[in-house]
Amino acid sequence: MNNKKRTQKLSYLLGAGLAMLMSFSATSKDYKIILIHGLQVSQITNKSGSDVVNDGETYWQSYWNNRADERIDWPAYERVEGKIATDWVWPKLKQISRSNLCDQGCVLVTHSTGDLIARHIIDNQENWLENAGFEPLNIVATFDLAGAGGGSELADVAVSALTGAAWNFAVDAALKWWLGSDVTEAVGVLHDLKVNNARKISPLPDARTPRLRFVADGNAYLGITGGFLKGNDDSVVASHSSCGASSAKSFGSCSQSIDTDGRLKSQGDAVNSFMPNHYPMMMSDSYSHNEIHNAQRKGNVTIAMNNIGVDDQNVGFTTFDETTGTWFWKKQYRYIKDSNSKSASALIYNVIP
Asked: What is the distance between the alpha carbons of residues 19 and 93, in angstroms, rounded to a whole number?
């Protein structure tokens, strides 16, 4: 091969390599993703036979597993401020700190009770790690899907029923749909999920980490569980919890001007006060509690807040407005672009910086 051809080939290879690098850089994330799963009911019914790590992997397999950099797994039969923190969260925090994974920033992606675990981490990880001689994690934000950080009234009902304080046919039906018929005692994180208990766990973290909320409002379990939840709900947690409201009241929307189905209309029963640094972004009545973190479900979603600052970057969705009907039947809706063709998880992943 002569020099001219060698030069041409080298230029081509360098150009192709640069194009591949640019393509990868355009789709890779600035921040590493750490997953924190929600309640694993099977671990309550089969404590001795639970494989916590394998359960954690299975939990996210529909969408998030292959897109995340790390997971924090925890057993449902333990308590948040007890062995979940000491035996599961703490060793993982040390491992992540040693690996320098979060040096450039990490995002916690949580589902359900993982929201509560994340709040306890945000409140304590800096002190825990510094006191042990480790570098604290640079957690720039959390993305909380169907967050249960405000607790769930179903946990109040479950603990009461399983300890013999209250029981009737409606309670029996709700608990069978939510927990299954094999649960015979109130153990572990069920106590932490009681509304008053949940709201007392690390309620005011010193770290001002933005907590971005993604709220479901769809029905599951034939609507049986919703009768025990305050206001609108996703069949497991009520809007006061998933929106991040500062109080456990009956709310219909996270936004005072947009309904959960996207309709632009004044919402008299909307959340009007939020826990510090809590920002509800996405809302949808197309998803129930256990659908929003998976890939199979699709359906229109809307926004509550948009364009939230995360570590000097802007996180937001492209939206469009749609009008239906005329005259007295005229209605206006606002949707997130591509939400009718992509799952909620895909939409959320795409806006992580």
From this structure: 36
